[in-house]
Amino acid sequence: MGAATRAWIAMMALSAATMAAMQSGLPEAASRAWIVLLALVTVVKGRLILLDFLELRAAGSWRTGIVAAFVAVIAAVAAGLLPG
Asked: Domain map of the chain by residue range?
């Protein structure tokens, strides 16, 4: 199984987890956990896209900055979504 196939399988599994989170009718206390879970899923999925699909895995030292900026944006969005 090649790297592209593994990345595709992982992205499909993460998409299924995202769909399950969106469809759940959990109370507000559990929604915090879902927001954190979705943020983590988004980071993993986005990192796969950045490194494998966009082929930035071999991009050199600035690859770390791209991934760190992506994680920072997702963390900021998740913090804004968390209930007060």
From this structure: 3-81
